[in-house]
Amino acid sequence: MRFDEAYSGKVFIMSHPVVEESKAILYGMPMDWTVSFRPGSRFGPNRIREASLGLEEYSPYLDKHLEEVPYYDAGDIPLPFGNPARSLEMIKDYVRKIIAMDKFPLGMGGEHLVTWPIVQAMYEKYADMAFIHIDAHADLREEYEGEPLSHSTPVRKICDLIGPENVYSFGTRSGMREEFQYAATSGMHMAKYEVLKPLKTVLPQLAGRNVYVTIDIDVLDPAYAPGTGTAEAGGISSKELLAAIHELARADINIVGADLVEVAPAYDPTEQTQIAASKFIREMLLGWVK
């Protein structure tokens, strides 16, 4: 896995050709080995790249152009099919290399379990890190049908690693009773159903801190993003998620890395899910990479 030669596959719009001159590295994690309902998120990264070709390079929201934030699309990590343990180790090693280069890591999933090894790598450098989790699902299970490596477990693992008091979940509207009980008693912060309003309330508490952000596309209502493995009715709009991304960009926090996961293109023949995801990625690059 090298960053010193151009990726020969599809690239996100206006990817910079030279990694050394880039401020951020965009990378894909094509893994859906542990999904509990519908597979297919391993195809998400490349379809998001394809959809990005329909974007403008300029954001009227932020009054910024992608030429102002050079980033390098490193392509997808070549993960071994069906081997979650090895895949997670490869992701962790990959992100360590990005951090060592002092670049902003922006990942595209893939299932949500891929966030776990990223946070492990980030925590090695940022021991004071807070974690913002925007998702329909709590992801607080310790295991799923006896398997601890599951896309329903990453946030619980992250709570155990960095402390639940440093974990902030928004938009949560699905999970086991035990997951919501854990959230209520552990000291973590969970805002059910909504994102923007509670996010505005919480961000002043995180002033000056290093923060990692993960976005699961299924936080959106299926009307806005049907192309995901475990869709949940009652979600937010694309407009609200964009507003949340911009709120994070304006906040007095230091976003040190991020990912967007769970785009499963096969379930959306209209392609609106990957079109929306590509716009979110653009706004994350323009707003969060300093």
From TrEMBL:
Per its Swiss-Prot or TrEMBL entry, what cofactor is needed? Mn(2+)
Catalyzed reaction equations: agmatine + H2O = urea + putrescine
Q: Which Gene3D superfamilies match?
A: Ureohydrolase domain (3.40.800.10)
**Which InterPro entries does this UniProt record tie to the protein?**
Agmatinase-rel (IPR005925), Ureohydrolase (IPR006035), Ureohydrolase_dom_sf (IPR023696), Ureohydrolase_Mn_BS (IPR020855)
Q: What is its EC number?
A: 3.5.3.11
User: Which Gene Ontology BP annotations are present?
Assistant: putrescine biosynthetic process from arginine, via agmatine; spermidine biosynthetic process
Highest rank taxon of the organism: Bacteria
Q: Which residues bind Mn(2+)?
A: H112, D135, H137, D139, D216, D218
- State if Metal-binding is listed as a keyword: yes
Q: Which GO terms describe its molecular function?
A: agmatinase activity; metal ion binding
Per UniProt, the cofactor note for this protein states:
Binds 2 manganese ions per subunit.
Protein's UniProt name: Agmatinase
- Species the sequence originates in: Pontibacillus litoralis JSM 072002
